[in-house]
Model the fold of this input.
Amino acid sequence: MNMNTAELREQTAALLSAGIDRASHMTAFVGLDGFVDEILHVVDKREDAEKYSRLPTIAQLAERLAAAAGKSTNIELVSQLTKLGGNGPIMANALASLGLKVTYLGILGYPNLHPVFADFAKRAEVYSIAEPGYTDALEFEDGKIMLGKHQSLKQMNWDNIKTRFGQDKYAASFGSADLVGCVNWTMLTYMSDIWAAVLKEICPAMKGPRRKLFVDLADPEKRTREDILRALDLIVEFQKYFDVILGLNQKESDEVGRTLGFNTSDHSPEGLRRLCQELHRRLPIDTLVVHPTAYALASGSDGLHLVEGPFTPKPKITTGAGDHFNTGFCLGKLLGLSTQQSLLAGVTTSGFYVRTGQSPAISDLAIMLRNWPS
Done:
């Protein structure tokens, strides 16, 4: 098992620091979702108008809900903050923090941007073609439950991109960005159709060097096997034109593995290494990444690597941790780091974010790598 050594951290810190200026000249084109996220705690006991104790675990909420069957119950939610959400905006925001020039196309309000995206629109060039989705994120110490309202998401389709954004404009951004990020396939039910249209109408005319395309399916459990297989075929097709990186968390690697007929019952690091290799053999793209919470692994042209993250038992925030991992990993790949160093950049980016609630700059990553939390 490739441990996370002081030597590896120093090498990675040095390479990231040396890449600050290069990163500031790089461009990213990211999309296509957009959510307004309200982070909520569930009340266990209310002491008075101001004070309450929080229900700490998902299992305790499940017990409370199960006990209400045949009766009814009242669950109080306390809002902690309302913030921009969706894999795309979180990843794009994090890339902007790392110094890249970011263009974002998504569903952030139409015809006017929702106010929660106002700061984001100052840090990136932002285009929106529909209303956002809305998510109530119930946060617990052991995970989160996302309750989504998704009516507007079907407006993210190729026809609307062409009429409300413009095909030429799309081709210009998609065909020139150092990194193209295409995330939240699961919730955007027309994403596969958009990919098919882009492969047919945009990719064949692209010129210049190969660039990076990052894809995140985002929890495909609710999509059919046929849909998932079609999406995977399209992702592999993009490898003709891009160095494709597919990022999966542990649950997503299970879903995709099962869809492809692999055994996904072994969740040990060894079992995940096997699964990661099997997935990469079946999906001939540049890099396949699997990131559980405590570590991450990836299969790339330089072999399979596993790196442990800076685990914290009491994170300040968890919503967006995976998107920050993806951002750090993509930064590493853009700067020419090895797969192992890119994994370390990924776990450090997500580790910084869950501890502070903020997206890091590259200099923050170097500092954290050199002062690794015990």
In short: The chain has 14 helices and 14 strands.
